[in-house]
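*Target chain*
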Amino acid sequence: MTCGVKNVKSTGEIRKDKFNNMVNTEKRLTDFAIVNISTGEITKEIYEGDKLVTKEQSEYAENYITNFNRKVPFVKVYLCDCNELYEDLTGTEVIVISTLINYISYKDNILRIDKRPMKIKDISDLTKKNYDNMKKLISSLEKKEVIKKIKWFDEEANRELNCIAVNPFLFFRGTDIRKEIVEVFNESKWSKINYKMG
């Protein structure tokens, strides 16, 4: 079977939606239909929004949930050979960075809480750790090139602010990132690590 051409037309039906309202549903035929290539007979009309599913796709769907939890925000955590990052960090640093990755912003990897850049006090309050100890820990994470304190123009505040950026070679939210943030970490040892493949 293959797709053939069919004139566009509309068919409608009146039905009740889940709130018991009367709804007129218009289904528009596309210019395509499934045609039996041996007989030329149209075996199925294709409407807007219809999907053609191959046997392989159908078998895959029987065994896998695609786009699992797709509406839940997530952060990419890159896997390094020999767990280099976790060998470099103390146990407390691992716990803190594991907490902070929840606050990485899209496109600039800046730590934010309630849309504003996080301060060390925010991190101290969030992790329930002493402020002075947190200052030392943030300084240590900066020396280890996991994070960096930077000046950044914050669009929400419409001015330049002190911010903490997370190294996008290690942790990253989304698919696109500002070039300036990558440049901040381009010379870090994490930009040159081997990632685990497969």
Observations:
- Residues 1-8 have pLDDT under 50 and may be disordered.
- DSSP finds six helices and ten strands in the chain.
